[in-house]
Every structure is written in C-alpha cells, then in structure tokens.
Amino acid sequence: MTDINTIWSLVLDIVRDELNTPSFKTWFEHTAPVELTDDGVFVVGVQNEFARNWLEERYSQRLSSALKQVVGVELAVRILVDQNSSQEEEADEDQRVEEPVVQQAPSAPDKKNTRHEFDPKYTFDSFVVGESNDFARNVALAVAEQPGLKYNPLFLWGGPGLGKTHLLQAIGIYVTQNFPHKKVIYVTSEQFTNDYVDSITAKSHDSFRQKYRSVDVLLIDDIQFLENKQSIQEQFFNTFNELKHRGKAVVLASDRRPQDINMEERYRSRFASGLQADIQPPTYETRLAILKQFVETQNIPFEDAALAYVAERSTPNIREMEGAVIRIIAYRELSKKQIVDLPMVEQVTKDIFLDRSHRPIPITSIQREVCRYYSISHAELIGSKRSQSIVYPRQVAMYLARELTDMSLPKIGNEFGGRDHTTVMHAFAKIQKLMSQRDVYNQIQQITSSIRQKA
In this structure, are 59 and 125 located in the same domain? Predict the structure, then answer.
C-alpha cells in the first residue's frame, strides 16, 4: 500500500477542494499522518486538544470519505494530539468549554444583510496569525462557520489596535458570503447608542427592536463604551437575551475583560457566559509579518532591513505601526525614490521611534500613568497607606521605574516617599514573579505602552 504521507497528501487535496481557504488553513494545515494500524485505523496527529475535538466533531466523516476515495476501502479515522505535528502548546481547557448546541431557528432570506457595512480588507485570510492571536482567530472562525451554535457569546478583548475589529468584520464577511440568507449587523456600541436615542426621538422604538432582534449574527465593537449608560445597558441586555434565547450569534469586543467593565454584575456575567478570547500584543515576528503583508498590498518595495527596523521599534498597536509605514510611503512618493531603504526609514521615523526609544523616561511619567491606570492619586501612590488597592499599584510603579529608567534603587525609593531601597527590590521581585500571570502581564504591557507613547 502507498505510504501514509502520500495517502494523507491526497486526502488533503480532496478536503481542500471541498472547503474554503480559511477553514482548511486553520484545521488541516498543521495535521500530520501518524500511522495506519493493522486493524484499519488511520491515525492523524493535530497540534492541540482544541483542534482534535473540532476535527472529530466536524470533519471525521469527511475524512473517512476522502480516505475511501484514496485507498478504495473503508478506514476508521482516529485523531490524537501529537506534539510533533506542531510547536504550539495544548490549548487551555478552561478557556475552551463549548456552549451546549442550541437548535437555530431558520431565518427568512433578507437581502439587507448589511454586507455593505464591512471593510473587504478585513478577512480571515488577511489576518496575520501569530502566538499572540491564534486562539482568538481560530475561535472567531469557528463562530463564523457555525453562527449561534459555537461559543455563544464570543467575547474578544485586548488593547487598541491589536485586531479585534478585524476579527469582528471577518466573521461578518464570512457569514454573508457562506450563509447569504442570514442577517448580520456590525456596529460599535456608540452606533447602538445613537440608534436607540434616535428611536426615542422619532418614537420608533419598535423599529429599533426589529433591527437588532431580528438578526442572525450581532457583532458589537467597543462594548466597554456602554459603561455609565444605564438605560442603554438595559436595552442591550434585553437584545442580548432575546438573541441568545433564539440561538442567534452574539460576538462582542472590548479593550478589557468582562469583569473589568464598569457595569452591573448581571451584564458582566452574561458577557462572560460563553467563551472569552484575549488578543495579546504581537511579537516582533508577528509585527514583521503584518508589515510585510501590508507593504505587499500597497505594492511598495521595501528593503528587508527597513521593515525590520520598523517592526523592532514600533509599538504593539498595529494601526500606529501601519500609520508609520504610510508616512514612510508618502515620503518615498514625494522624494521620487524607487525603493524604501533603511536610511529613508531612519530619517522619516526619527521623531517617532528614535525619540521614543532613546529619550529618558521621567519617573513622574511612570507614576502618572500608573495612577491613571489604577485610578488612585499621586499622594496615595507615594504615601503611607498599606491597603492592597494602593500597595499593588505602588509596586507596579516601582517595577516599571526599575525597568524603564537608569535610576538606582535608592533614588527610586526616594521618589516613592523616601522608601528604603530594599522596599524597591521587594516590589520588583514580586511583580517580576507575578508577570507569569496573564492579567499582570497585560497590565504591565498596557501601562508600558502608554508610557512610551507619551514619553
């Protein structure tokens, strides 16, 4: 019999022809044949438990059929987690608990499925995947493939410019292309608020309810902006419950976790009742891949060293990074240069990257950003209060002062109410240890990014 690698290659050719590109890349690109047992079981290795469960549930019959086409006989398919098939770690099981399947009521065809509201550049194919965002991208695709039946609601969260809007729009584009009868709405929470206010002014509340409660997929961006808007929160809560009850898909995006949004507990618990997926700041490798894709779409020749320079010195905010590249492209066009080289990039971005990376960061800037982030006063930060709500931000500020400045430990201690250098050492060691926790890591990253951008 033909060797298993050849068999699997032929099977993948069949599956590739039957699926769209995003689905194939996500679920099959990292699979590998393991063995064909004597009792007729074809064993396939995948990168993690999440992929194994998804393939078994959604594609086992498709794989069996493809195998029969290739080898001519019925073979059972067994899928297992094989670390050799990928370098990715197994997915966190606590984050991947699936919602019970809800039977979805059929929707009447609706030509006004709002596909015109989506930016065509925001697709799953154009979303650059890295370690910082692969889980969020995969679950977003899973929701798009089975709207309302998987991970409902899906709550995407992460800092600004990391790709949340891209994924929301990618879901919308995918659904409108593959399920043309489904009605999809993408709005920001600000637009949702404006629509509600307009409905009150025009005395057309029924129209508002019909618009948002008759959809099959509701995509809401920047949900955190509903904070302190009690009546709007109530309207959204009712809309959310209605859609959830009817098995319709709800996907929300925010710059923070549900539990960190200033709303009533019943709202936060609803947001967290499905699956949460956070998007971390991109690594250097991911930033470089994003930049390469961006300049390719612009059809502008960049030297590798020039792109590497931008990727290395840019902030995690992808929009800001692309903004810097647009500025470079504009300079190239004005200067009539054929190719973007390293000297040009250094010249154009000297006020963006060089100043930001080499200008000394005042400890007052660190203290100010920490106070803003944790909503405490400067007097509390450097004072003698020992409550945890004050001590922890103080330790974060000391840690950042040690990381971002050249000040000695005694000088740092002096800036925090004349504290001893051993106190600074203890604070640094404690936060450094806590950095292994994702929440703490996110906080440090966000505060650091804000400090550097304002330095």
Answer: no
Q: Return mean pLDDT, the chain.
A: 82
Are 380 and 348 contained in the same domain?
A: no
Name, in order, each residue with C-beta under 8 angstroms of 36's C-beta and a sequence gap of 6 or more.
Answer: 1, 4, 7, 42, 43, 75
Q: What type of residue sits at position 289?
A: A
Tell me the average pLDDT across 139-162: 91
Give the pTM: 0.59
Please indicate, yes or no, whether residues 69 and 124 belong to a single structural domain of this protein.
Answer: no
* CB-based contact 282:321 (threshold 8 Å): no
Same domain, 142 and 253: yes
Which position has the token pair 């190719």?
339
* DSSP for residue 123: -
What DSSP string runs through 227-272? TT-HHHHHHHHHHHHHHHHTT-EEEEEESS-GGGSSS-HHHHHHHT
CB 280 within 8 A of CB 142: no
Buried b (16+ CB within 10 A) or exposed e, 101-128: eeebeebeeeeebbbeebeeebbbeebb
The confidence score (pLDDT) of residue 38 equals 83
Look up residue 118 and give its DSSP letter. Answer: S
Q: Are residues 334 and 404 in the same domain?
A: no
pLDDT at 359: 55
**For residues 132 and 286, what is the distance between their CA atoms, to the nearest angstrom?**
8
Q: Rounded to 5 degrees, what are φ and ψ at 279?
A: -115, 120
Q: Averaged over 301-305, what is the pLDDT?
A: 90
Domain match, 267 and 180 both: yes
CA angle 243, 94, 123 (to 5 degrees): 55
Structural domain for 144, as ranges: 115-279
How many residues does the structure list for the chain?
Answer: 455
Helices (H) and strands (E) counted in the chain, each on its own, are 20, 8
pLDDT band at 455 (very low <50, low <70, confident <90, very high): low
Q: Considering the chain, what percentage of its residues have pLDDT values greater than 70?
A: 88
The structural domain count of the chain equals 4
